[in-house]
Amino acid sequence: xxxxxxxxxxxxxxxxxxxxxxxxxxxxxxxxxxxxxxxxxxxxxxxxxxxxxxxxxxxxxxxxxxxxxxxxxxxxxxxxxxxxxxxxxxxxxxxxxxxxxxxxxxxxxxxxxxxxxxxxxxxxx
Length: 125
Description:
There is one protein chain. By secondary structure, the chain is an alpha+beta fold. It has one domain (about 5-120). The chain has five helices and four strands; from the N terminus they run αααββββαα. The chain has helices at about 5-15, 25-30, 50-55, 110-115, 120, and strands at about 60-65, 70, 85-90, 95. The protein has a four-stranded mixed β-sheet. The termini are far apart.
C-alpha cells in the first residue's frame, strides 16, 4: 500500500470488498478530512472503532500489541456481512487480517452496553 498516511482507510476499503484505491470513498464516509492525510488526521484506533462499526453496521475486530478489541454497532442491527478485521503493525501501518473459523476474538469494547440501543442489546451479542 502507498505510504501516504491513508493506509487505515485503504485497509478498510479492502475489508469492505472494494479496491485499495477506493480509500477516498471510505474517508468521505467516516471522516471529514481530505486526502492525502497529514499525520494529525491518520486513522486512529481504537478511537475510530465505534465510527467504523456504526457506519458499516458490522463487527470490527482490532488487533495491536497494546490492545485487542471488538466493536459492535450502537444504533442498528448488524447487517451480517463479513466482519472487518484489522491490525496495526509497527505502530504506524494497518493491515487486513483473515481470521480462521473458531479463532479467538477480542473482548467487546468496555461500556458498549451503556451506549447501545435496546434493539442492539436484544440482538443477543
